[in-house]
Amino acid sequence: MNILTFFSDYLEERRKKNYQRIRERAERLKRQGKNPSKGGWNTMVHSGFGGVKTNPIDRVADFAQQQKNIAEQNEIKERHSGQVKRK
Hints:
- Residues 68-87 are annotated as: Disordered.
- Helix content is 63%, strand content 0%.
- With 87 residues, it is mostly helical.
- The chain folds into two domains: 1-40, no CATH class; 42-87, no CATH class.
- The longest helix is centred in the N-terminal third of the chain and has 29 residues, at 3-31.
């Protein structure tokens, strides 16, 4: 047996296991009444850094301000939809 065929068989088996695991998870979520393709969290903050490590203090302040802006936008949307009374 060639090492390349062994490695390709290993990768194929690994892909099959991962595919089966994802299918089982999707079925479990469907049974719970959830949409398996809808995942993640709420609105993400666009940092614009792309993984570049710069001054961390500036990044934290920028993230905090962006999160405040997103929270304010969501609050305005909720007020206009009539779901939440004004605080």
